[in-house]
Recover the amino acids of this structure.
């Protein structure tokens, strides 16, 4: 292992680097973070090469807010010949190991989009090459990633399939529901997929459960809950989608989302209001501290500068108010200058 590679939304490479440095410092891992603005990825370069260990959670994908994917780099290949990229890549792999699958990925940038067709074609060739060399084993816990920031350069990396993002480029490709009232519905759909595991989704999103949606209008987030059979109290002074209201699962209250409190505990509170991140985080923590809800998912709109510091300050404020919390957060593919947070008491 030479480095840790993370994919991210272009423009947030600096935040990824700060996060990598912080995780490495906490674990006592020597090295340095490296990032180029707009590249769509960042790296933590180890001071000395180290054995790859799938059990090492120092840079685990789920621990990072701004990383879409987190991988262990085992080889760097520069200036690959366009006539044959496969031979040097296979030669760079260590002997005696096998992978369950192999993905070839570009960054989520304008240049990366021009490489998409090549990556699809080369991905097929790589899988065939791995099979012929006896390096494919569907029972392996490992997946091989060939990351091409350019058409000639490649970072060869490994991921533990149980601990990494299960989507190419770390992006779940979701389809917009034609009857949803706004595209913001995809944020909550992605949040359920990224921030919860399959068992949690089965246990916590059952028909008949209750939820409050703060700042609900026109109902993009409410739609996701209603789609799962959850009863929703929608809090907003604006109008809700008429078709959504006809479901019989939505009660609309024209009240201030920052002042509303339910009369009894609800299973979920969700919130996508435009407000200062610290104020939103503190209000969400109050809901948990007062027992208004069992768990919450909400968005934090980030400032233009010191975004990583603002996120950490928001989490610290939540813990001061609500005590020991299980906080999970990601900058989702459908987020922009924001992150999406899940929180519940431990």
């Amino acid at each position: 292992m030479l480095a840790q590679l993370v994919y991210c939304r272009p423009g947030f490479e600096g935040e990824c680097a700060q996060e990598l440095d912080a995780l490495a410092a906490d674990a006592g891992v020597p090295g340095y973070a490296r990032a180029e603005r707009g590249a769509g990825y960042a790296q933590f370069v180890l001071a000395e090469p180290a054995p790859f260990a799938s059990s090492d959670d120092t840079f685990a994908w789920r621990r990072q807010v701004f990383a879409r994917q987190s991988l262990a780099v085992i080889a760097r290949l520069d200036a690959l010949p366009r006539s044959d990229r496969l031979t040097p890549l296979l030669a760079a792999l260590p002997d005696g190991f096998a992978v369950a699958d192999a993905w070839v990925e570009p960054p989520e940038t304008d240049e990366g989009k021009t490489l998409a067709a090549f990556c699809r074609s080369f991905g097929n060739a790589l899988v065939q090459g791995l099979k012929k060399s006896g390096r494919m084993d569907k029972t392996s816990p490992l997946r091989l990633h060939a990351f091409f920031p350019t058409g000639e350069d490649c970072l060869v990396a490994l991921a533990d399939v149980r601990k990494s993002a299960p989507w190419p480029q770390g992006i779940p490709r979701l389809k917009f529901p034609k009857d949803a009232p706004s595209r913001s519905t995809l944020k909550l759909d992605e949040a359920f997929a990224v921030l919860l595991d399959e068992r949690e989704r089965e246990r916590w999103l059952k028909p008949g459960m209750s939820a409050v949606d703060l700042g609900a209008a026109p109902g993009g987030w409410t739609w996701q809950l209603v789609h799962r059979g959850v009863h929703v109290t929608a809090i907003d002074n604006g109008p809700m989608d008429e078709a959504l209201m006809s479901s019989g699962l939505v009660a609309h209250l024209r009240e201030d989302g920052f002042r509303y409190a339910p009369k009894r505990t609800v299973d979920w509170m969700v919130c996508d209001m435009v407000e200062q991140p610290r104020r939103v985080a503190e209000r969400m923590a109050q809901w948990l501290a007062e027992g208004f809800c069992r768990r919450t998912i909400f968005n934090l709109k980030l400032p233009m500068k010191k975004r990583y510091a603002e996120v950490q300050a928001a989490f610290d404020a939540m813990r001061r108010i609500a005590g020991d919390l299980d906080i999970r957060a990601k900058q989702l593919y459908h987020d922009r200058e924001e992150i999406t947070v899940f929180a519940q008491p431990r």
User: Anything to note?
Assistant: Residues 116-132 form the longest helix (17 residues).
